[in-house]
Amino acid sequence: MDTFLLDPLAALGRATFALCRTVGNVTLFALAGLSHVVRPPYYGRMFWRAFIEIAWFSLPVVALTALFTGMVLALQSYTGFARFNAQSAIASVVVISLTRELGPVLASLMVAGRIGASFAAEIGTMRVTDQIDALTTLSTDPMKYLVAPRLLAAIIALPLLVLVADILGVMGGWLIGTYKLGFVSAAYLKSTFDYLQAEDVISGLVKASVFGFVIALMGTWCGYNSKGGAQGVGGATTTAVVASSILILALDYVLTEAFFAR
Amino acid sequence: MRDMADPATRPADRPAASGVPKIRMRGVRKAFGAKQVLDGVDLDIAAGRSMVILGGSGSGKSVTIKCILGLIQPDAGLIEVDGKDVLHMSRAEREALGDRIGMLFQNGALFDSLPVWENVCFKLLAQNRITRAQARDKAAEVLAQVGLDGSVGDLSPAELSGGMQKRVALARAIAARPDIIFFDEPTTGLDPIMGAVIDGLIVDCVKRLGATAVSITHDMASARRIGDDAAMLYRGKIVWTGPAGTLGHSGNAMVDQFANGEREGPIHMELRR
Ligand SMILES: Nc1ncnc2c1ncn2[C@@H]1O[C@H](COP(=O)(O)OP(=O)(O)OP(=O)(O)O)[C@@H](O)[C@H]1O
Ligand SMILES: [Mg+2]
């Protein structure tokens, strides 16, 4: 603390240096993990375990999030749009904001909380109880066995989850639109699909894939490098969730810029 | 049960192997932060023999073994296995060597997400030497060797007692019949009889498989039973090596103090850390 007050520049330099080193380490870890995805042997069992954990067990929380988001979206836009008589645009607003933005981001944030934490805790515990070292002595590369299957599973599972989220979100909007706001069901659905473009959905799914990679990467990386017993694993878990959530939001901007700012 | 003290079965009676040592360490140094844990370890372990490493708690015995296994990268020094420098090996060579090595971790390090039988046969499965169908039978067979019932195979490691976990870990270390085996405190946490059984098993591995064993133990009776040779690690260096049979009356004041558990002597335990 003293040095921080006395010499803020040095502290800033140290922090920047540490950040660069961390970014470098995470990048190397990611490249190593991805390279193991394509090189045999493949651990199908580990892949399925991770896939089921992400895709199937996240389904309820993602579904509820999407449903309520769609409902709120319809309600909010109704009250807002009524001010300039644009209520008819509600269906399009709901579907476009869901597929492009809210579906991928909210689903990924929910999954980051569940999966990032569970990956970091499981791998972190394996690290501090020597299980990762044990893998090495049992002719198994821990990067291949623990990291690669999780990365692949998240990259594939997130788009599927987001697809479900898109559908349920639109359904939530439709429920509110027809039962509460007095739209005719067929008209609501027609205007939902009239203005929707394939690009909206696909860009959302691509985002989801990237976010899935980030979640699995931060979870496995934090766990893999955790030190010092239960406290270390707790710290790794927190870092994994916070870092992946922030990265999701930051990357969301970058990807949106890349897709739509043309 | 066989009497392990029977002189006819004592490993120390076998002739020392000649030629290149199986494992050779020279000037191995390792520090964690400011703490110099290994400060120039020199150690030769002959092929087909059983070496016991002694030393106080925290003296760096586990670190020494992990350096040989490549789990910890030493700061300096040379480590050779079969005359080959393991610190500068290619990845493929390292993996090939790893296939021939078994390790029992001090805390067991069992995979708690897998049932016991899969733990035991993990290496055989990883090397595709057996199918998953065969693995259960194989696991039961190896578990029997460490005095566990085959039905233990279906439990998860978390459901076992500490001593049972140790024995499962031991079964996992020897299941693939390695050429070099490391045992980090194999009998800690076991009752005396089971301790003697495990000691017998280690002796068997060395004798029947012709394996080279490196064990860490704090139990002098066990050290005399399983060891052909013994080495003492103190303040980051190997201060003595000699036949395990002479522990307690070796003539080296430090070793004898340690082996006999005397408070007075050349070793001063650093109680403040
Ligand atoms: N990964 C690590 N990071 C930091 N320090 C470590 C690490 N591993 C070991 N040490 C330190 O190295 C020293 C030696 O540890 P080691 O585990 O080798 O002791 P040991 O001789 O096996 O003791 P025991 O008989 O109690 O198992 C200890 O002081 C420990 O604090
Ligand atoms: Mg130890």
TrEMBL record, chain A:
Transmembrane segments: 12-34, 54-75, 151-176, 201-221, 233-255
Transmembrane among keywords: yes
Main location: membrane
Location of the protein in the cell: Cell inner membrane; Membrane
Gene Ontology MF: a single term: phospholipid transporter activity
Topology class, membrane: Multi-pass membrane protein
InterPro entries attached to this UniProt entry: ABC_MlaE_roteobac, Permease_MalE
Keywords: Cell inner membrane, Cell membrane, Membrane, Transmembrane, Transmembrane helix, Transport
Pfam family, one: MlaE
Domain of life: Bacteria
One GO term describing the cellular component: ATP-binding cassette (ABC) transporter complex
Family label: Belongs to the MlaE permease family.
NCBIfam families documented for this protein: MlaE family lipid ABC transporter permease subunit
Its job: Could be part of an ABC transporter complex.
Name recorded for this polypeptide: ABC transporter permease
